[in-house]
Structure to design on (198 residues):
């Protein structure tokens, strides 16, 4: 339980950092190639490590971290690649990050569907954020923008959207057990009235 709580808070802090990096890219899209590569590499690497750790925690619903072993390994690989080859990967950045955000968004769509099955009322918020994140991933993959500045700002928005989406998922779904009792789940229901003969 302590590991889950620590991982949850670290995960949430890192989601906020994701948003902050996105804002930096939007405001300063013309920073050096090396700086961009190292920033993306470092944040993606640490993000992957946190998600891998989260996969092995005792999360009650197992929604926020359910795909984190695969996504975490992929994020670690992408992070290491950017850290070791920041200049070379800059030309491939829209494609590589687009794939990352698309996969992340699709996994989040599945998480939203699972949240609905658990009776979590705010699953629609999760779904909407996941769809938006996946859409930005698709935009980065096809990269219809010729301007590098526009592309960097789009990347920044994608980082910010992903961070917000993951923060919402963490707040809604990451739960622990209290006193060995499972926390109640919010469920929508309809009362059905039956006749005497039923």
């Amino acid at each position: 339980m302590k590991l889950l709580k620590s991982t949850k808070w670290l995960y949430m802090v890192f989601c906020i950092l994701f948003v902050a990096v996105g804002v930096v890219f939007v405001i300063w899209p013309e920073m050096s190639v090396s700086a961009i590569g190292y920033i993306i590499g470092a944040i993606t690497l640490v993000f992957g490590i946190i998600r891998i750790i989260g996969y092995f925690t005792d999360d009650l619903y197992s929604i926020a971290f359910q795909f984190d072993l695969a996504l975490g390994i992929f994020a670690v690989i992408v992070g290491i690649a950017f850290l070791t080859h920041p200049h070379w990967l800059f030309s491939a950045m829209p494609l590589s990050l687009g794939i990352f955000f698309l996969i992340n968004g699709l996994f989040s769509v599945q998480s939203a569907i699972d949240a609905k099955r658990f009776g979590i009322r705010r699953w629609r918020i999760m779904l909407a954020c996941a769809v938006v994140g996946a859409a930005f991933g698709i935009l980065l993959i096809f990269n219809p923008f010729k301007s590098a500045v526009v592309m960097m700002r789009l990347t920044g928005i994608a980082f910010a959207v992903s961070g917000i989406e993951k923060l919402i998922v963490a707040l809604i779904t990451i739960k622990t057990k209290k006193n060995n009792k499972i926390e109640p789940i919010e469920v929508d229901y309809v009362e059905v009235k039956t006749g005497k003969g039923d």
Notes: The CA atoms of residues 22 and 155 lie 7 Å apart. The two ends are 46 Å apart (CA to CA).
